[in-house]
Amino acid sequence: MMKRKLYITLLGLLSTIMTVAVPYCDVRKFSITDGLAANTISDLKQGKDNLMWFSTWNGLSFYDGYKFHTFRDNPDDIDVLSTNRILKIEPSHNNNVWCITYDHQLYVYDTHFCRFFAVGQKFNELFNIDLRVSQVYPMKNGATWFTSEDGKYIIRSVGKTFDERNIELIKVGEKGLRSGNVWYIHQDSHGREWVLTDKGAYVYNSKFPSQLPFKWIRWVGEDVFLATEDGKLAKYDLQNRLTMIPMPEGVTRINELKNTGYQLLLATNLGVIIYNPRTFKFDIINVQSPSQPLAEVKKIYTDDFGMVWAFTDGMGVTLINPKTGQKQWLFADQDNPMDRTTCESNFITQDENKTLWVVPRGGTFSYFDRKAGKLVPYLLRSNSSGNYRIPKITKYVLSDQGILWLTGSHDLTQVVFKYHPYIINKLDVGEDEVFSVNASPDGHIWTGYHNGVIQVLNASYQRIGYLSPSGQIVPQQVNFAETGIYSIHFDIKGRTWIGTNGNGVYLIDKMQVRHFTYDANAPASLPFDKVFDIVADRTGRIWIGTYGGGIAW
């Protein structure tokens, strides 16, 4: 009975809104007790086959949707790995997994043979080097790039890694490579492979007409846009022509490039800059506000509604409409700091329902209520393990299935985004809690409120009217009883039983209303006037549960 009361009370708390859809998270925490290789997760990636892979300080694991599978060197087996402590992973184009160990040795886990291969050792023997790998970059065309810790060379491999004819060592100073300190390696839609370094861009098997240290690259249509950290912007076309684009005065730093359709977005020291390649026009949007005084934008994100989210080193996050230039500073935090979920980087993502989830700078894990135009803090805690809270996000991946995988100080967390659709009706006059709900035999929904009102809805949740003291349904809001309606029951004879909080029981039978109350002088009367529940057993007998007077029938 108490569970039922709590459930109905929760519905009552929501009855102050008309129609809402509430996002929520189904959170599950994994650890070594669930089969994970270790509780410290160093990296997490999704492969082309949609499997989730996790590198740990005690081996490599993948999750098949049901359980974890772990691979590592065992004490009673032949050692292949220099250490089971894996630092980074990168799934390959053929569903194998590249692994960089804690001492920067290179291995590949072959999912066909179910074993590790010491690829770095093969490279060392082939080129007479001592390779310490920094990063692995698999390309869509099947090529894979490897960068070195010392920055003296990079390696490119195609096809089977052990085929010497398809492995190429490119030293600094050769083939146009000016530096081995690589920021990133990309492949564009035309198949060109871009190596961006601190001393200039290198295009594989092509000459690039500039020594500018481009760090950012973005494709808009057929053109490639490149930007340096110190505020220079250029366009590279299919004719291999590089055209410098004059930036607005005062731009001295570019922190990121994005685009919305054909428009180019730049995170700069002046704020968010929008460049239209068709009109050659720049628009500068200053993100400063009384709550956030910093101008420099460090990260930008575009959502599915074409809106731009800008992060600075200041508090919160700024929402920008790129079409109108309007901006809004947003922030959300938990009342209790122990309920807060923070992030070391600027966390922002969207789920399959187009709900945007974000951790504003200095705030907590939240979702954006687009109708209300505000961030709503969300308490991120697991459904098991004693409501384990997620205090921090250090690394995260949103899978192709729309599942968020994240890790904090320890352990692994899976977050499945879901949606609660609610159709909720308000009273015509005032607001109050709902304490009872039941459906009549004709499909109507009767709702009893704490103030004594009974509202009647049809099967489509449209309001029919209100129950009057005479037992008739009338269009205007009236009180059926003087106290709260705590129970509504329809018996097999078509009668309606209504229990109240202090005013006894009402029975409506063929439009006649009878009233039963407690009478100290009548032993057969109702034992108490506070009626919390009314049910019928298999024989049709009515049982009445009271608060303080026991059960009557």
Automatic annotation (TrEMBL):
InterPro entries for this protein: Reg_prop, WD40/YVTN_repeat-like_dom_sf
Signal peptide from the UniProt entry: none
Alphabetically ordered keywords of this record: Phosphoprotein
GO molecular function per UniProt: phosphorelay sensor kinase activity
Pfam name, any one: Reg_prop
UniProt name for this protein: Hybrid sensor histidine kinase/response regulator
